[in-house]
Model the fold of this input.
Amino acid sequence: MDYPKIRRDINAFPMTVKGNAMICFQDSHGLSEGVLIPHELYARIVSLFDGKNSIRDIQYDVMRKYGDLIYTEQIEAVVQQMEEAFLLESSRFHEALERLKEDFTKASLRPAFFSGKSYASDSSQLKAQLESYFSDLKGPGMPDRNKGDAGLKGIIAPHIDFQRGGHCYAFAYKAVAEAVEADLYVVFGVAHAAPDGRFSLTSKDFETPLGIA
Done:
């Protein structure tokens, strides 16, 4: 790739790995696990992946600004690493994205993408994990399903992984569990990446370790 261009819709955040400052790049579509780039390389190389700079342009710009010689092979290695992870604008990325969309369209269920990652994939382990957020010292205690609170109209719960926000989730959903049962529950979720429209809708049922929802 002569003129690398980084995608605008990827996730990038700093992290420390064995004492080294890194930038983690993640594909918002889940096409790859992500790429770790040393922070210095990000500042000097990846920030120049705008689709207008050639490999030689990037090499020259780094030398002009910082006085450091970075070999074209080093830049090409970063380009290849990010291209393999579908983090650059390319025909390969768009073809993979189209396959992903086609697979989703054909599927009868919406798969549990983070099962085994953000939460346990085994139903018994997941039940224990979720119950712990209620019963732990930081939790609100187990719901009293006989309470029948008729005053609840809706809740706002956090949008974060269970490891960080599990107990906060428990306080929110305890209120739901203790409320009078409704015929219909409407759940709005916040997207990690901006969709094409204001809402993303699907008629598919959701696959979960606890069954089909």
Summary: The longest helix spans residues 91-106. The two ends are 44 Å apart (CA to CA).
